[in-house]
Amino acid sequence: MRENVVIRTVSRLAVPFIQLFGLYVIAHGASGPGGGFQGGVAFAAAFILMIIAFGIADVRKRINNRGIMIFSIFGIALYAAVGLLSILYAGNFLQLNVIEAALGIPHLHGILIDIAEAGIGITVMAIMISIIYDMADTGGESA
Amino acid sequence: MSIMEQLPVLLIIGPIIAALIILAAGWHDRRLCYPVMLLSITGQFIASLVLLLQVIQDGTIRYYLGGWAPPLGIELVIDSFSGFILSTIMLLALLAIVYARRSVEAEVPAEKIVSFYVLVQLLIIGLVGMTITGDVFNLYVFLEISSIATYTLIAGTRSPRSYVAGFNYLIMGSIAAGFILLGIGYLYVATGTLNMAEIAMLLPASYELSTVHAAFLFLMIGFSIKAAFFPLHLWLPDAYTESPSAVTVIISTVMAKVSVYAMIRILFTIFTTAYIIESFPVTEFILLIATIAIVAGAILAIAQNDLKRMLAYSSISQIGYIMFAVGVANQIALEGGLLHILGHAMMKGCLFMVAGLIIYRMGTSNMLELRGVAGTMPISCAAFALAGASMIGIPPTIGFMSKYYLVLGAFEAGYWLYAAVLLIGSLLAAGYIWRFIEIAYFGDHHHKGDQTTTPEGPISMIAPMVCLALLCLILGIFVEMPMEIIGPAAMILLGGI
């Protein structure tokens, strides 16, 4: 298992494509099927593949528990910020068309929704990885 | 004025941001968690009072999320019923958080404190959301947020038994949540909308469909599990007994009340009296079960030796009183039931705070080891006596007032026999409350606790307890004050505006 060249090479090839697909799904949340949750899960799937192929210690070096914490807080904060921004422009929570009307930039509400979706995606990705860490851990070091 | 209009959503978004700050601050320094938490809960409490005053003055507040009007969007609705419940639970939550600090330090392992506070904050967000939402699916989402927080909070102590209690509640709670989701699904099938007001409007056309009956039964059973309504109460005694004292205070007052609130909302706002009385007559059955709950809960409470477990069984009995009001379903009885939601939250909060303080000071909640505890802890035992008197229903406490209204309502509806059961329930309550009073005041004085002049506990634990005990008395005397909001609330439930 440790030295299985086929698994390692195929994973190394597949991971960027899985991540790209995840980003694509997140970015299409506003205009087509998809969204932050699904994209976040797809993105996290790449990390799961890496854990299977390279072992959990290797992946932890790339994203540790502190990183997961920061990503999950940042994601929700991004979502809340977009929602609260519309309150600053005298609309209701997440009423994005008032911002578009105030700034006069066309399609701004779509862009803002994409930012909110990205926030969801980041949080979902972080939480999914954290669940996998908890499941793969056999005791010892944990959060 | 803009901030006033945004208050309903800030009530939910503000604490979510606070929860994130608690998490981030806790990473930096554990001691920062508590002040942030206290600040956010205080803010929520003030906001809930402001909203309540606004509702009394100007009537129902509706807030459209994202500016999308229902049935397309999700709305938050604060009418006199949800406003009343909202300020009740925020008052209790605030007092419980003040109380929690020292008790949590003593009972929760230090490395879990950060996640403990984050989860308490999430629990309160979920409960506030359940209270003010006007959308059934949104109700389910908030229910899940609060439930998941509760499962982990119950398992928060060092004792392995709390893990078992938490796991049992996880199983029961998940079944309940599944039933509720199925019920919501069937309602959606029957009406094609998830907005509560819309469903209530469209539902009469399909009252005879079996889909609607199934939806009703699923929702009813699901919320009965969540509220621990008698035959479905099995998770409750363990959960209340084994969880950390501060958590017991929160779940026995805030969470139990919101579950009952959600059930009453479903019964009266969505299905309306026309359905539950005429189309699918279920109120008599609820009345029957409620009376069994009152008596059985009280008898089981008398049989307990553990103080917390006794109070937990007493909760089952008291939920029976609230459901009794639902079963009678007339104006006076519902007023009594809603008053009992407030009253029971205050007295049970106070009693569990006393139990928590006794555990904090004496290290046990076994009543047989607590003989003569009143000598060591006079203030706590006095608070217990006062809240206990309210539990029995001795005038002029709030417990007396709510039972008085319940009995009046039962008389008006002609349920003489059931009214008699209410009185029997009070006698049984006197049985289990008196048992502790007797042990505490008249038991012989041979326990190890020193009789010196040391204070009986931290002031942050005594103050909220005394505050609640006095509120039981004061609100009982000035009962017109809560009735001013409860009257219209009961009227809304019965279909008048």
TrEMBL record, chain A:
Membrane topology field: Multi-pass membrane protein
Q: Which residues form the Na+/H+ antiporter MnhB subunit-related protein domain?
A: 6-129
User: Where is the protein found, in the record's own terms?
Assistant: Cell membrane
Q: Which keywords appear in this protein's UniProt record, sorted alphabetically?
A: Cell membrane, Membrane, Transmembrane, Transmembrane helix
**Residues annotated as transmembrane:** 12-30, 36-56, 68-91, 111-133
The GO cellular component terms are: plasma membrane
Major localisation = membrane
Q: One Pfam family, please name it.
A: MnhB
Fetch the PANTHER family from UniProt.
Answer: NA(+)/H(+) ANTIPORTER SUBUNIT B, NA(+)_H(+) ANTIPORTER SUBUNIT B
> What protein does this entry describe?
Na+/H+ antiporter MnhB subunit-related protein domain-containing protein
Source species of the chain: Methanocalculus chunghsingensis
Automatic annotation (TrEMBL), chain B:
Keywords per UniProt: Cell membrane, Membrane, Transmembrane, Transmembrane helix
How does this protein lie in the membrane? Multi-pass membrane protein
Give an example GO cellular component term for this record.
plasma membrane
**What compartments host this protein?**
Cell membrane
The entry lists its GO molecular-function terms as: NADH dehydrogenase (ubiquinone) activity
Keyword Kinase assigned to the entry: answer is no
GO BP? ATP synthesis coupled electron transport
Domain NADH:quinone oxidoreductase/Mrp antiporter transmembrane: where?
Answer: 134-428
Note the superkingdom of the native organism.
Answer: Archaea
A Pfam family matched in the record: Proton_antipo_M
Transmembrane segments annotated in the record for this chain: 6-25, 32-56, 76-101, 113-133, 139-157, 169-189, 209-235, 247-277, 283-303, 310-332, 338-360, 372-395, 415-437, 458-479
Task: Write down the PANTHER family for this protein, in alphabetical order.
Answer: NA(+)_H(+) ANTIPORTER SUBUNIT D1 (PTHR42703:SF1), NADH DEHYDROGENASE (PTHR42703)
The protein, known as: NADH:quinone oxidoreductase/Mrp antiporter transmembrane domain-containing protein
